[in-house]
Write a structure and sequence with these properties.
single chain; Alpha-Beta Plaits; 7-stranded mixed beta sheet; 25% strand; binds L-homoserine; 310 residues; alpha+beta; Ribosomal Protein S5, domain 2; 2 domains
């Protein structure tokens, strides 16, 4: 990162898809778009101000806003806890959508603060970002924040030592449909069982190993075939009316695989071609159960960016 501090930093921080099929709390895919835009300016010591721009309303109390909270945590971790700042946050994605909205805010806040303070330690930025994630989700999971920070496809391979593997994914289309319902991550997590059956664990080990092989050999068709999960998906699909209809519609239109984005309610399909046809099929699938949905097409992305320092 940076050796020297500055007065102002502008950061764009991306949406992500956590779990990516079989990798519950481990796999993350960074998306090229949408992105949050976060601007941090230095203020005198101890002063913190937050402004929220755009159509999504979020807390402006610096202790309750994910982006400013992780910025404060970053300052604390590097021994500058009294660093004052003003921050503006423009959300590019709907909170509570399953597209890593809280991770985009927390990584964006931590990276903007790191740019201002001249902090280069990515491990420290990851830690502060996960603290921001915890504020919203109620648990410190690293899958979304790792993908947003490092870009590409990431694997939290050892949570204890924070070992994050980074894989450059091949190019494919990601078609996302976001039904007009909200699912809070903490609720979607609370409905998961505390233990799983051995046969389901064995199945997920196979799926996740296959997914890694497919990513490393850059075989998009194979990536699609491993987009399944026996740990979280069977419980969470019940929170998304029309899940099976939308899945069938996407696969029928040529998708190579389909799953839930993070804890939902966003669902996604991947493809090589046919993206518009798949998008329309997914929207019709939700419509068939009486739900409106937003939809868009994106590709894997390269992670958070510092657009400007001055
Ligand atoms: N891995 C987390 C979960 C991601 O599925 O609960 C939340 O966005």
């Amino acid at each position: 990162m940076w050796k020297v501090s500055c007065d102002r930093a502008v950061v764009s921080s991306p949406a992500t898809i956590a779990n990516f099929g079989p990798g519950f709390d481990s796999f993350g895919l960074c998306l090229d778009a949408p992105r949050d835009r976060i601007v941090v300016r230095r203020l005198p010591k101890g002063r913190h101000e937050v402004k929220v721009l755009g159509k999504y309303s979020l807390p402006t109390n610096p202790e309750k806003n994910t982006a400013s909270y992780s910025a404060m945590k970053l300052a604390e971790l590097c021994g500058s806890s009294d660093a004052g700042f003003s921050m503006s946050v423009r959300k590019g994605m709907k909170p509570g959508s399953g597209l890593g909205s809280s991770a985009a805010s927390s990584v964006g806040g931590a990276v903007a603060m790191a740019a201002v303070l001249g902090v280069r330690d990515k491990g420290m930025i990851l830690e502060a970002s996960a603290m921001g994630e915890e504020l919203v989700a109620g648990s410190r999971h690293f899958d979304n924040v790792s993908a947003a920070l490092y870009g590409g496809f990431t694997v939290v391979s050892d949570l204890k030592t924070r070992k994050i593997l980074r894989i450059r994914p091949p190019r494919f289309q990601i078609i996302i449909a976001l039904p007009d319902i909200s699912v809070e991550t903490r609720v979607a997590r609370s409905m998961l069982p505390s233990s799983v059956e051995m046969k389901d664990a064995v199945c997920n080990v196979g799926l996740a190993s296959g997914m890694l092989h497919a990513m490393l050999t850059r075989n998009v068709r194979m990536i699609g075939s491993y987009l399944d999960d026996k740990l979280a998906l069977p419980h969470r699909m019940k929170l998304i009316p029309g899940y099976s209809e939308v899945r069938d519609a996407a696969m029928g239109a040529g998708a190579l695989g389909f799953s839930i984005g993070g804890s939902g309610p966003a669902v996604f399909a991947i493809s090589q071609g046919n993206a518009q046809k798949i998008r329309k099929a997914m929207v019709s699938g939700f419509k068939s159960v009486g739900l409106k949905s937003d939809s868009f097409i994106t590709v894997p992305g390269t992670g958070v960016k510092v657009e400007k320092r001055s």
